[in-house]
C-alpha cells in the first residue's frame, strides 16, 4: 500500500511517433512526451516510467542481449532514449537510474542502434544526428569514440544483420552504402551513392527482364506495375534518362522506411505508402514489389522477421498484415493462384495472373490481417514493435496512449471452394514444423525422442514464429504435390492484451480520503481523474494501474470531491455561451456498484458550478455557483438544506472546519475577534484524522460542523450546520495585507489563505496571530494541507508551477516552475503525506517526492497489479541460478522447477524465494514440457534462452541442437555412417528434386532423427529430410540447402539483368557456380556494337571448349595466377573455377582478405572436406584479436560438426557454463568419440563448471560435477573437505 514516485502517462505527442521498441526481455518501451514508459507484455501493465528528458522523446532502443551473461556481465535492463533536443540517455530500467547521458547538437536524434560487432563490446551505441552526422558512443561512459560527417542530409540508417561493416543511409534523394564501418575508426569514405529511377519503356529491355512490362499485361495491370524501380549510381540521372513515358519524378522523399531484410542476405526493403520494394544489393535492382490494393490502407511501417521470411506490415488504419514469402513452383498458365494472392496482382482474378510476373519474382503472400481500428484525428497508429525473441507478438502503439498486443496463432487449414474469394489460404496452406510421434495434430517435432522412458509426450510449446510455421521455402505447392511432415495451418491474429493511458485532456484530479487507523484494512490509495469528454478514471497509486473507468458525464468534468472511500461527487457542464448560463450536471457515484445518482436535476440553465466543498464528516456539502449564492446540501438524504438569498455576497473561497462537536447542546461561538479559538473550549474537539469518510458518527444524531468563506471584499464569514439548521456565526475582517482571497485550507488551529497577488495569509487561531508571507508568484489557484497528524506542509498551486511550504517554519521547502515551452499544470493534490500528485497539460499524472525532484522509483519495492515474469528483475546471482536450474539439474534425483537448499549460504534466502516466485508464474505449458524434453539438455537450454530473452544463447543452442541432431542421424544412418565428421551428410535431400522419400519409425529405434522402413534399413538413408536451419543463418545452413538457395538466387539475377554490366556479373557468378552452359549463352548475347563484343565472344569460346586435361589445366592455372598477381583477382578466380580449382580460388580470395566471397564460394561449390578447410581458416580469422568474433567462430564450428573444437573455444573464452551444458548435450547425443583427449577435455570442462557453480553457492552441483571430472575433480573435492574441516 506504499506510494512511490511514479508517472502515469496518457496521449502521445506527435514527435513520439515511431518511438517504440520491443526488447528481447519481452518488455515494450515507448516515448510519451518527455517520459519513457516500460510495459510488461505478458501481464500488459506498466512496470516503470522514466523521466529526465527535457524535450519530447523521439527514439527508444533496447540494448541487445547477444553477449555471454555472467555475474560480472549480468542480465540488466538497459535502454537508450533520445529526445528532440539531441540528448541521449542510457537507463538502468530496474533502478530507474541514468547510466550515461550525452548529446551532439540540439536537434532531434534521427536514429539509434546498438552495436555488437565484438564479443567484448556490448555497450556501443550508434546515433544519427541531423543533418548528416553519425557518432559512435560508449553507452556506459558517454564518451564519443568517433564522428563521421557526410555531405548529404541523412534521414535514417540501417545495419546489415549479416555483416556489421555494411551500413545503408537513407538521404533525401539518394541512398549511401558504406562497407567499412568499424568500431575502431570512422569510415574513411562517404560511401557509394545510388539513386532511384524507373526504366523508361522507350529504351532497350531484355526479354528476360520484368522491369519493363508491355503489351496486354501492361494494359491490365496499369501504371502501378510499370513503376518497378532499380538502383543506379553514382550520379543522379537526368529526367531525359528516365524514359519518354515516365512522367513521374522518382525520389526518396516519400519513402517511409528503409531496412535490411533479416531473413536473407543482401536484401533491402524500401517502404512507400502504396508499395514495398525488395532490392537485391548484389545487382542493385528491384527483385520484388508488394503493391497496395486500390481500396487498401497505405503502408506505414514494416518489420522484417528473422526466423521466417515474413513481413509484418502496419497500415494507416491500424491493422497489421502478415505477408509470407512464396516461391512459385510452376509458370504454366494453368497454375492455380491462391485466393489470398488475388489482391497482390492488382485485381487479376484469373489463373493467368502469373503471366504478368516473372516466375522468379520475389512474391509475398498476404496470409492474415488484424481488424482495422477506427482511426480519427486524435487516434492514429503511432508505431509497431515486434517481439525480437518470438516474432509472434506485436505491440501496436496508438496516439491516445493505448498499446494493443496482438499474437499470432495457427488453426488447422480446411480446404474450401475457390469461389469464396474472401477466404484466405484456400489453396496454399502453410505447414507446421512437424508432428510428434503418437500425438495427434501436435506441432513442431516429428523426430523420435532422445530416450524412450515411457514418459508422456507433449507437443512443443509454440513460443516463436518458427514454432508456428515451417520454413517458407518448403511450403507445399498449391496442388499438394510435395509431402509435408507437419499439418496444413493458417495464421490468425488474436488480441491478447490492451494497455490504456490517461484520458485525453484531463481537467481535474482528486485523491481519496487519507488512510487512518480505522480504514487501514480496507484502504486503497485511489485517485480520481476527470477529463474533458466526461470520462472519470480511477487509478490505484500503489500499482499505478487503472482500477475503474466511468463514462458518466456528457460534457467536460469541472470538479470531483470524494465523499467516502468508495464514492465521490462530480460535476460538469459545457463551455458557457455568451450569456454565461449552462446546464450543470452533478452526480454522486458509487464505485462499488457503478450506480450514479443525479443531484439538482430540476435545475435548468444557470450559472456554472465553481466548486463543491464536502464537510469533513461527509454529512454536508456546499455547491458554489459563479457569482451566485451557494447551496448547502444534506449528503446523507441528498436534499438541499438551504439556498442563500440573492442578496448574499459573492463568495471567492470557502473551507470546512476540520473540527466538530459531538454534543448537541448549544455552544456559543465567540462573536469577537479576540476569541482564542473559533470553537469553545467546553466542546470536545476531534481531528478529522481520527476517522475517515466512512465515519459511523452519521449513524447517530447530526453533528455540528463549521465552515468559513471569504467574500470579494476580503471579509470572512463563519457559519455552522447542524441537522437541518444553518446559522451564521461570526464575521471576521481579513488582514489588510491580503488581496482578493482565491483559496483557503484549514487544519487544526491553522487557517491558510492564498490571494490573487501571490500572498499567503497564515492564521494561528489559537495564538490569535495572523501573518502574511509573499510567495513572489502570480495568483494562487489552490492551497491544501498534506494529510497526517501534525503535518503542516501545504502545496500552493499557481499558474506556472507548484510550491511546497512548511507552515511550522513558514518557508518554502521545494518549488517547481514550468516554462512556456514546458507543459502547464492543471491540478494538484496530495497522494500521501509526503507525495504531491500533479496532472499536467501533457495528459500525464505525476507523483513527486516531497522535494519535487523525481517522479520515478526503483522496481525493487514496487507493487504491481499482476505478478511480473522477468528474470532480468532478479539479482545477477538469482537470475543465473534460475537459468541453470532450468537447463540441467542432474545433481537432483528428480527434475523440479524449484530451488531448495542446494544454495546454502545465508544471504541466499531472499533470492531463493525470488527465483521460486518466478518459477510459479512461468507459463504452464513450458513448466510441463521442460522435465520431459525429448532432446534433453540442448533443448532445455534453448527453451530457457528463449524464455530469458537471451539472444546469444538462443542463437547458439538453435544451431547446436540442429547439428547435434544431424550428426546423430548420420551416425545412425546406414548410408552415411562411413562419412565421418560430415554433418552435411546428416541432411540428405537432393536440392534439385521437389520430393523426398517418406520415412517411418524404425523398430529398433536406432535413428534419433528420421528412421527408415525396416525392409530398407540397409540401403535407405535415415537422415533429416528437411533443411536444418532457415536462410537467416546464411553460411551456417547445411551445404545442400545453401547451394540450392544460391542457385535459385542466381537464376533470379539472370532474369533481372537489363544492362551489359549486369549480364557480365551474372555470367561471372554462373562460372563460379559451375553453370558453364548458361554462362556461354550470356556471353553470346553481347551485341556487335558493344565494345566488349570481341572479348565476350572469346570468353564464350573459352568456357565452351575448356578441357580438363593436364596441359590445359596447367596453362589456365598459370594464366589465372598471373592475373591475380596483377590485381585481376575476379578474372583469375573465374579461371580457377573453370578448371574445378575452387579450393585454390578460395585460398587466393583469403590471401586478398575477401573473406565473404571466399566463404560463399566454398560453401556453394566445394565438397565438404574442401569447404571445411576454408571454414577452418575463416574460424582462425574470426578468433584473431583484431576481429574478436569468437562467438561467430563457434557457430561456424558447429555447422562443420567440430564439437570438440567448440568445447575448446568455449573454454578459452571462459564460457564455462555454456561449455558444461554443451558437453552434457554431446554426451546425451553420443557424438563425441571415447578417446583420451576427449576424456581429458571433459574433465577440464566439468571441473571448471563445478567451480563456477560453487561461486554461485550451489555446493550440491559442485560435488556432482567434481565426481564427473574423475581424478582431477577428486583432488578438488578433497581440498574442499580439508577446508571445511
What does this 3D model show about the protein?
The chain is an alpha+beta fold. The protein is built from 23 helices and 58 strands. Residues 200-228, 240-249, 330-356, 418-427, 435-447, 475-484, 663-700 and 987-1019 have low confidence and may be disordered. Residues 197-211 have a biased composition (Low complexity). Residues 924-1230 form the WDR11 TPR domain. Residues 524-788 form the WDR11 second beta-propeller domain.
Short summary:
The protein has 1285 residues and is an alpha+beta fold.
**What characteristic shape results from the CA principal axes?**
elongated
Largest sheet: 5 strands, antiparallel
Chain-averaged pLDDT: 82
**How many angstroms separate the termini?**
48 Å
In order across it, which strands form the biggest sheet?
14-15-16-17-18
Q: Using DSSP, what is the number of strands?
A: 58
Alpha carbon gyration radius: 37 Å
Total helices: the number is 23
- SS-derived structural category: alpha+beta
Helix content: 10-25%
DSSP strand content: 25-35%
Low-confidence stretches: 200-228, 240-249, 330-356, 418-427, 435-447, 475-484, 663-700, 987-1019
Amino acid at each position: 500500500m506504499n506510494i512511490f514516485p511514479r508517472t502515469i502517462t496518457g496521449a502521445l505527442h506527435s514527435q513520439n511517433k515511431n518511438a517504440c521498441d520491443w526488447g528481447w526481455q519481452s518488455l515494450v518501451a515507448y516515448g510519451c512526451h518527455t517520459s519513457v514508459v516500460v510495459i510488461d507484455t505478458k501481464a500488459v501493465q506498466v512496470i516503470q516510467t522514466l523521466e529526465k528528458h527535457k524535450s519530447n522523446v523521439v527514439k527508444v532502443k533496447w540494448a541487445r542481449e547477444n553477449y555471454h551473461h555472467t555475474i560480472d556481465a549480468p542480465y540488466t535492463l538497459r535502454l537508450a532514449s533520445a529526445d528532440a533536443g539531441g540528448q541521449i540517455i542510457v537507463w538502468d530500467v530496474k533502478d530507474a537510474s541514468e547510466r550515461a547521458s550525452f548529446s551532439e547538437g540540439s536537434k532531434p536524434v534521427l536514429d539509434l542502434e546498438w552495436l555488437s560487432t565484438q564479443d567484448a563490446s556490448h555497450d556501443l551505441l550508434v546515433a544519427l544526428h541531423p543533418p548528416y552526422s553519425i557518432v559512435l558512443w560508449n553507452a556506459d561512459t558517454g564518451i564519443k569514440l568517433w564522428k563521421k560527417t557526410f555531405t548529404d542530409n541523412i534521414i535514417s540508417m540501417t545495419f546489415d544483420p549479416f555483416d556489421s561493416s555494411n551500413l545503408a543511409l537513407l538521404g533525401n534523394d539518394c541512398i549511401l552504402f558504406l562497407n567499412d564501418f568499424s568500431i575502431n575508426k570512422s569510415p574513411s569514405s562517404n560511401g557509394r551513392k545510388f539513386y532511384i529511377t524507373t526504366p523508361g519503356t522507350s529504351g532497350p529491355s531484355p526479354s528476360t527482364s520484368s522491369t519493363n512490362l508491355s503489351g496486354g499485361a501492361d494494359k491490365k495491370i496499369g501504371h502501378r506495375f510499370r513503376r518497378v524501380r532499380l538502383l543506379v549510381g553514382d550520379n543522379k540521372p537526368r529526367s531525359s534518362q528516365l524514359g519518354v513515358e515516365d512522367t513521374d519524378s522518382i525520389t526518396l522523399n516519400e519513402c517511409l522506411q528503409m531496412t535490411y531484410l533479416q531473413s536473407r542476405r543482401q536484401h533491402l526493403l524500401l517502404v512507400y505508402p502504396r508499395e514495398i520494394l525488395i532490392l537485391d544489393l548484389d545487382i542493385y535492382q528491384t527483385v520484388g514489389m508488394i503493391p497496395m490494393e486500390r481500396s487498401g490502407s497505405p503502408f506505414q511501417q514494416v518489420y522484417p522477421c528473422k526466423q521466417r521470411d515474413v513481413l509484418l506490415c502496419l497500415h494507416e488504419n491500424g491493422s497489421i498484415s502478415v505477408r509470407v514469402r512464396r516461391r512459385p513452383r510452376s509458370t504454366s498458365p494453368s497454375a492455380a493462384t491462391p485466393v489470398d494472392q488475388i489482391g497482390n496482382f492488382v485485381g487479376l482474378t484469373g489463373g493467368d495472373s502469373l503471366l504478368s510476373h516473372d516466375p522468379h519474382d520475389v512474391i509475398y503472400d498476404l496470409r492474415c490481417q488484424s481488424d482495422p481500428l477506427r482511426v480519427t484525428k486524435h487516434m492514429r497508429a503511432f508505431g509497431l514493435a515486434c517481439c525480437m525473441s518470438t516474432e509472434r507478438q506485436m505491440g501496436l502503439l496508438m496516439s491516445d496512449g493505448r498499446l494493443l498486443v496482438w499474437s499470432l496463432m495457427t488453426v488447422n487449414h480446411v480446404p474450401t471452394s475457390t469461389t469464396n474469394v474472401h477466404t484466405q489460404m484456400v489453396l496454399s496452406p502453410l505447414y507446421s514444423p512437424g508432428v510428434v510421434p503418437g500425438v495427434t495434430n501436435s506441432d513442431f517435432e516429428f523426430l523420435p525422442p532422445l530416450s524412450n522412458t515411457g514418459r508422456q509426450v507433449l507437443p512443443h510449446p509454440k513460443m516463436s514464429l518458427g514454432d508456428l510455421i515451417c520454413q517458407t521455402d518448403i511450403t507445399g505447392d498449391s496442388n499438394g504435390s510435395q509431402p509435408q511432415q507437419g499439418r496444413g495451418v493458417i495464421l490468425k491474429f488474436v488480441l491478447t492484451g490492451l494497455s490504456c493511458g490517461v484520458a485525453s485532456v484531463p481537467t481535474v484530479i482528486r485523491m481519496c480520503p487519507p488512510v487512518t487507523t480505522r480504514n487501514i484494512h480496507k484502504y486503497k490509495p485511489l485517485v480520481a481523474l476527470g477529463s474533458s469528454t466526461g470520462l472519470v478514471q480511477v487509478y490505484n497509486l500503489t500499482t499505478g494501474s487503472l482500477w475503474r473507468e466511468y463514462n458518466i458525464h456528457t460534457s467536460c468534468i469541472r470538479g470531483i470531491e470524494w465523499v467516502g472511500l468508495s464514492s465521490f461527487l462530480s460535476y460538469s457542464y459545457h463551455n458557457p455561451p455568451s450569456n454565461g448560463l449552462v446546464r450543470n450536471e452533478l452526480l454522486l457515484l458509487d464505485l462499488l456498484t457503478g450506480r450514479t445518482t443525479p443531484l439538482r436535476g430540476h435545475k435548468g440553465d444557470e450559472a456554472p458550478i465553481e466548486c463543491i466543498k464536502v464537510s469533513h464528516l461527509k454529512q454536508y456539502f456546499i455547491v458554489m455557483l459563479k457569482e451566485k449564492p451557494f447551496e448547502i446540501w444534506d449528503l446523507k438524504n441528498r436534499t438541499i438544506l438551504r439556498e442563500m438569498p440573492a442578496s448574499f455576497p459573492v463568495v471567492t473561497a470557502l473551507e470546512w472546519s476540520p473540527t466538530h462537536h459531538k454534543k448537541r447542546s448549544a455552544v456559543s461561538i465567540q462573536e469577537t475577534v479576540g476569541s482564542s479559538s473559533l470553537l469553545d473550549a467546553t466542546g470536545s474537539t476531534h481531528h478529522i484524522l481520527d476517522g475517515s469518510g466512512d465515519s459511523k458518527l452519521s449513524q447517530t444524531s447530526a453533528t455540528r460542523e463549521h465552515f468559513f468563506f471569504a467574500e470579494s471584499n476580503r471579509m470572512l464569514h463563519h457559519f455552522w450546520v447542524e441537522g437541518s439548521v444553518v446559522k451564521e456565526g461570526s464575521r471576521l475582517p481579513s488582514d489588510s495585507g491580503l488581496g482578493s482571497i482565491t483559496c483557503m485550507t484549514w487544519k487544526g488551529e491553522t487557517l491558510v489563505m492564498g490571494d490573487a497577488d501571490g500572498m499567503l495569509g497564515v492564521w494561528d487561531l489559537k495564538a490569535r496571530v495572523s501573518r502574511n508571507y509573499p510567495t513572489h508568484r502570480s495568483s494562487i489557484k489552490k492551497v491544501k494541507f498534506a494529510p497526517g497528524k501534525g503535518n503542516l506542509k501545504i502545496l500552493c498551486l499557481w499558474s506556472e508551477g507548484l510550491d511546497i511550504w512548511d507552515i511550522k517554519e513558514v518557508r518554502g521547502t521545494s518549488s517547481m516552475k514550468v516554462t512556456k515551452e514546458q507543459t502547464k499544470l492543471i491540478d494538484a493534490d496530495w497522494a500521501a503525506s509526503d507525495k504531491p500528485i500533479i496532472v499536467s497539460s501533457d495528459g500525464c499524472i505525476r507523483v513527486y517526492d516531497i522535494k519535487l525532484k523525481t517522479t520515478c522509483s526503483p522496481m525493487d519495492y514496487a507493487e504491481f497489479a499482476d505478478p511480473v515474469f522477468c528474470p532480468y528483475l532478479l539479482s545477477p546471482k538469482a537470475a543465473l541460478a534460475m537459468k541453470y536450474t532450468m537447463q540441467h539439474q542432474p545433481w537432483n534425483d528428480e527434475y523440479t522447477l524449484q530451488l531448495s537448499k542446494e544454495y546454502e549460504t545465508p544471504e541466499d534466502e531472499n533470492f531463493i524465494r525470488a527465483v521460486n516466485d518466478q518459477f510459479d508464474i512461468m507459463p504452464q505449458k513450458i513448466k510441463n514440457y521442460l522435465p520431459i524434453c525429448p532432446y534433453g539438455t540442448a533443448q532445455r537450454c534453448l527453451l530457457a534462452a528463449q524464455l530469458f530473452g537471451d539472444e546469444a544463447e538462443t542463437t547458439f543452442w538453435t544451431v547446436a541442437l540442429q547439428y547435434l541432431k544431424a550428426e546423430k542421424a548420420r551416425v545412425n544412418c546406414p548410408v552415411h555412417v562411413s562419412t565421418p565428421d560430415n554433418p552435411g551428410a546428416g541432411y540428405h535431400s537432393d536440392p534439385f528434386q521437389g520430393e523426398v522419400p517418406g520415412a517411418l519409425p524404425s523398430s529398433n529405434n536406432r535413428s534419433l532423427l528420421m528412421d527408415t522402413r525396416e525392409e530398407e534399413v540397409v540401403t535407405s538413408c535415415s537422415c533429416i529430410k528437411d533443411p536444418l536451419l532457415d536462410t537467416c543463418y546464411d553460411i551456417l545452413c547445411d551445404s545442400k540447402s545453401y547451394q540450392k538457395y544460391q542457385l535459385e538466387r542466381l537464376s533470379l539475377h539472370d532474369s533481372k539483368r537489363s544492362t551489359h554490366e549486369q549480364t557480365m556479373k551474372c555470367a561471372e557468378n554462373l562460372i563460379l557456380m559451375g553453370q558453364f552452359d548458361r554462362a556461354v549463352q550470356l556471353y553470346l548475347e553481347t551485341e556487335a556494337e558493344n565494345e566488349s563484343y570481341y572479348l565476350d565472344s572469346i570468353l564464350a569460346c573459352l568456357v565452351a571448349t575448356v578441357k580438363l586435361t593436364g596441359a590445359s589445366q596447367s596453362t589456365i592455372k598459370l594464366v589465372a595466377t598471373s592475373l591475380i598477381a596483377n590485381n585481376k583477382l575476379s578474372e583469375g578466380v573465374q579461371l580457377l573455377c573453370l578448371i574445378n580449382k575452387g579450393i585454390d580460388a578460395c585460398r587466393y580470395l583469403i590471401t586478398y582478405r575477401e573473406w565473404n566471397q571466399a566463404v560463399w564460394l566454398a560453401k556453394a561449390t566445394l565438397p565438404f572436406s574442401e569447404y571445411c578447410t576454408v571454414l577452418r581458416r575463416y574460424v582462425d580469422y574470426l578468433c584473431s584479436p583484431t576481429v574478436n568474433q569468437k562467438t561467430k567462430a563457434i557457430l561456424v564450428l558447429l555447422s562443420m560438426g567440430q564439437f570438440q573444437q567448440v568445447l575448446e573455444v568455449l573454454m578459452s573464452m571462459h564460457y564455462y557454463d555454456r561449455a558444461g551444458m554443451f558437453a552434457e548435450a554431446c554426451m546425451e547425443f553420443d557424438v563425441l568419440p571415447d578417446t583420451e583427449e576427449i576424456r581429458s577435455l571433459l574433465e577440464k570442462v566439468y571441473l571448471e563448471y563445478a567451480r563456477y557453480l560453487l561461486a554461485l553457492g550451489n555446493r550440491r552441483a559442485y560435488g556432482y560435477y567434481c565426481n564427473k571430472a574423475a581424478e582431477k575433480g577428486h583432488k578438488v573435492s578433497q581440498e574442499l573437505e580439508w577446508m571445511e574441516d
